[in-house]
Amino acid sequence: MPLCHPYFVVPVDGDSAIASLTKRALPRSGRPSTSTTADNIDKIRTLVLENRYMSVREFAQECDISTTSAHGSLSDILHMKRVAARLVPKD
């Protein structure tokens, strides 16, 4: 049997291609994310409103999360970006 990418494998046992792709798209089991909880997002939001000149590293230290998680929370969840060393909402 030749090796190929799992998305190109023909489904077996009567599964449709859509159903087999949907099964792969389900969230993985394991440890849940603890950095993007509602408490951390609210804490970052209040810190931004108190001081827009804080660095991402300072936000991460205050919330006890990684710098990458703090940056992701600011940009992806809170939709903020840096403009002239100040955090402002994205347009």
TrEMBL record:
Query: InterPro entries in the record, alphabetically?
Result: Transposase-MT_Hybrid
> What PANTHER family does UniProt report for this protein, alphabetically?
MARINER MOS1 TRANSPOSASE-LIKE PROTEIN (PTHR46060:SF1)
| Name under which the protein is recorded | Uncharacterized protein
